[in-house]
Amino acid sequence: xxxxxxTGGNGFIGSHVVDLLIEKGYEVTIFDRFKHxxxxxxxxxxxxxxKDKDAVFEAVSKHDGVINLAGILGTAETVNDPYPSVExxxxxxxNVYEACRRFNKKAVQITxxxxxxxxxxxxxxxxxxxxxLMYNKEHGTKIAVVRGLNAYGPRQKxxxxxxxxxxxxxxxxxxxxIIIYGDGEQIMDMIxxxxxxxxxxxxxxxxxxxxxxxxxxxxxxxxxxxxxAELVLKLSGSKSEIKHVPMRAGEPERAVVKGDPRTLEPLxxxxxxxxxLEEGLKQTIAWYKEHLDEFLPWE
Length: 299
What we know:
The chain is α/β, with parallel strands linked by helices. The protein has one domain (3-295): Rossmann fold. The protein contains 8 helices and 13 strands. The protein has helices at 12-23, 53-61, 83-103, 120-139, 164-173, 193-205, 225-236, 277-290, and strands at 3-7, 27-32, 44-47, 65-68, 106-112, 143-148, 150-152, 178-181, 187-188, 190-192, 214-217, 242-245, 256-257. The strands form 4 sheets. The chain has a 7-stranded parallel sheet, with helices on both faces. Strand 4 (65-68), helix 3 (83-103) and strand 5 form a beta-alpha-beta unit. It starts with a strand and ends in a 9-residue tail after the last helix.
């Protein structure tokens, strides 16, 4: 395997997957519907929409494997209009699966740790997960499924989809109020983005034979949002106040979202290989501090 296609490669996780693949000596092409300039020069680019079956087939046919990171994200952001999530997260994934079936290519499909939640994002990504397992069983495809838990790290944007860490770190660095939904006792298994990228790549390139169940890219730790917020305040030396507000639509109170790192053992990866939360947050805070001007003004 030499040439790898990354759908959604311009996104947060995608950019780190691209970096790591190139470090490992692979030729990488980003497949994306927006003609954004990639974050680095030594990467190919294919302008196309994951919903366009012909474009997906053409791109997949020219590569040795594909990691499908294209998706419509968001919990509260997607509940009022589920159609885009269905079109991209399910139909788009099926286009990738059909291309892999047609051209006998290996693939990785990223899904979510909060698969049980009743919001458009979780529902559609869980459907994509189950379709992948169905294709593997019924059609003999090799589509590895990786549940990426709560990835965080450099380059993650605070909006339009509201992710936890940038919305803790940026206001903390500015000594502005930090907003937490609910009582903050919900459990979020945080995984450093570089670790997610490593798992995704191993799931594609290794001859692991695991296509009837999922890999869970998470630590399994019972970290609450309150704990994470207090750790960010400590590491950043912030004087921010924490404000609790009602839960958002599509998210239950005190949900438990965590992975089982034992599922990563066939990839030669285990909990001890994951970046500890405090170390990952130090690196992440340092990146946001360096790039703080890019996120101003902060409301």
